[in-house]
Design a protein that fits this description.
mainly beta, 13 strands, single chain, three-stranded antiparallel sheet
Length: about 210
């Protein structure tokens, strides 16, 4: 960034910090310059949005107008970063609080994400859960993703596609490599080879899950 508003030099430098490592350790930080991604001159973004797989940088400005003092060249180039590739199949989350500085915001309540060959399917509840014990379930049958809380379906979204296969182990109470630990207790978990229907989830909650 230049010394004044008329001298701003826009960039596409992304900086990432590994929260599981010491803040002052140089190995805890990674940087990437995306200003020439796919041959595009991609600079000047303001926040972004994240769907569970792709991060979309919101277009803003890319530099001063050559023939207009004090003006800037706006653009509509959306920069998309694939944060998963083929390295994840699904994620069931208690909450998804995130950065709220630009155009991005975290989901307060539980969410369920499925990584398929036709994109990421995501369902969520906008309300945070109350303190105490809860039963949270996510299902996907190739036609729709569904989220259940305490035996009741709270969200559903139509989506078609095959779940991507991965060799990574299932992570419980954390994200891969130990990041973002769940500040609670996971008393029971299971992964089923076939999708449960609404009746199955309700029956599971009412008959097999301890409520106290």
């Amino acid at each position: 960034v230049g010394p004044g508003p008329r001298d701003n030099r826009f960039h596409a430098l992304f900086l990432r910090y590994d929260v599981t490592r010491p803040f002052g350790d140089a190995d805890s930080w990674q940087a990437f310059d995306a200003s020439a991604t796919d041959g595009l001159h991609s600079v000047g973004y303001n926040g972004g949005a994240f769907d569970g797989r792709y991060f979309y940088a919101a277009p803003w400005q890319q530099g001063p107008k050559p023939d207009g003092e004090g003006g800037f060249v706006t653009h509509g180039i959306v920069l998309r970063c694939d944060t998963l590739g083929d390295d994840s199949a699904f994620s069931l989350r208690w909450c998804d609080l995130g950065h709220n500085g630009g155009l991005n915001a975290g989901i307060l309540g539980p969410s369920f994400l499925v990584n398929t060959d036709r994109g990421c399917a995501r369902v969520f509840s906008p309300r945070p859960l109350s303190a105490g014990r809860h039963h949270v379930v996510g299902t996907y049958d190739g036609q729709a993703a569904r989220l259940f809380i305490d035996g009741t379906m709270v969200a559903e979204r139509e989506h078609t596609g095959k779940i991507l296969k991965t060799d990574l182990p299932v992570s419980i109470g954390r994200i891969q490599d130990g990041a973002a630990h769940f500040r609670g207790r996971v008393l029971h978990w299971q992964v089923e080879p076939t999708a449960m229907n609404v009746h199955d989830v309700t029956h599971l909650y009412e008959t097999e899950i301890p409520h106290s």
